[in-house]
Write a structure and sequence with these properties.
The chain is an all-alpha fold and about 325 residues long. It has a single domain, classed as Up-down Bundle (Rhopdopsin 7-helix transmembrane proteins), CATH 1.20.1070. About 75% of the residues lie in helices and about 0% in strands. It is built from 14 helices and no strands. The protein is globular, with a radius of gyration of 23 Å.
């Protein structure tokens, strides 16, 4: 199939789909992470050794959420970037830090849970806050080193109006595909397999031992459910579709068309929106062990309704108060 018969790709789809997603993630993410960090600090000793990883998870989310207003402006202006090349690269770098930092810290939490349940006697007293801090620093360093090459790829289109690519310009897309596959392997596949192995073994232990604390079993199953949602909704579709989309771009540069290119492009843009949801869903990790959260949520919603009803008091009602 030659290039003249290629189906036209709907490049305007991200400008319609992504801004509402960014607004939702920004509002929910800031509120949830702010509330989660407050809860974490108030229950620092109660949460145990994983609190350091949970804290870093929240910081990674907030770091990325602060860049979302600039991306909202970008898409509201129909993919016109006005903030310069350096800041374009910084926003994309912050996204990678958030994405792979979140995966890294979730993996650390999973390993700690595994050790505490499967090998409790071996690790008792050996895993301290100092160890958690050292591991967290290593995660940040590894994720930074892994994400740094992305900043050396061209991010702006070079045309007017300029586009801020989340990957790179079409000229370098073949090389970027190789980089993306490497990052997918080291930053996603390996942590995912580690997490899967840890919780697979944990579930076997919990199901086979009748003496296992029921509360502990409930907490572990709840955290496993959260991780399943995060990986199946946010992480897996994004990595699969990003590499498929890059491959279709490589084929297009080679004058080879595929009928599925447009569908893959649109699916990839949807996955870009879904992967941003991790910043709003990660706070669930703060609360998975707290039995009082449903009651706190009901109380918060009740206060919100009372505040909202107060805004709609009529002048007559006000005079009667």
């Amino acid at each position: 199939m030659n290039n003249t018969s290629c189906q036209e790709i709907s490049f305007d789809f991200p400008s319609r789909f992504l801004p509402p997603v960014f607004i939702l993630v920004f509002i929910v993410g800031l509120v949830a992470n702010g509330w989660g960090l407050k809860y974490l600090l108030h229950n620092w000793k109660k949460l145990g050794d994983i609190n350091v990883f949970v804290l870093n998870l929240g910081l990674a989310d907030i770091l990325y959420l602060l860049t979302l207003p600039f991306l909202m402006v970008y898409y509201f202006m129909k993919s016109t970037w006005i903030f310069g090349d350096a800041f374009c690269k910084i926003t994309r770098f912050c996204f990678n830090l958030n994405l792979y930092g979140s995966i890294g810290f979730l993996t650390c939490i999973s390993v700690y849970r595994y050790l505490a349940i499967v090998h409790p006697m071996r690790v008792r007293g050996r895993l301290t806050v100092i160890h958690s801090v050292a591991i967290s620093v290593m995660v940040w360093l590894l994720v930074s080193v892994q994400s740094l090459p992305d900043m050396f790829y061209t991010k702006l289109s070079g045309n007017k109006p300029e586009k801020c690519y989340d990957t790179t310009h079409k000229t370098y897309v073949e090389d970027y595909l190789k980089y993306s596959l490497g990052v997918t392997l080291t930053g996603f596949c390996l942590p995912f397999l580690i997490t899967l192995g840890c919780y697979g073994h944990v579930i076997v232990i919990l199901c086979c031992k009748n003496t296992t604390d029921k509360v502990l079993k409930k907490k572990c199953l709840r955290l496993l459910l959260i991780l399943i949602v995060l990986f199946s909704v946010c992480y897996i579709p994004y990595h699969v579709l990003r590499n498929l989309n890059l491959w279709s771009r490589v084929l297009l540069e080679q004058k080879k068309c595929r009928k599925w290119s447009n569908r893959v492009y649109i699916a990839h843009q949807i996955s870009r929106g879904l992967v941003r949801l991790n910043s709003a869903l990660n706070p669930l990790v703060y609360f998975h062990g707290n039995e009082d959260i449903p009651a706190q949520l009901r109380q918060l919603l009740q206060r919100a309704r009372q505040a909202a009803s107060g805004l709609f008091i009529t002048p007559t009602q006000f005079s009667l108060v």
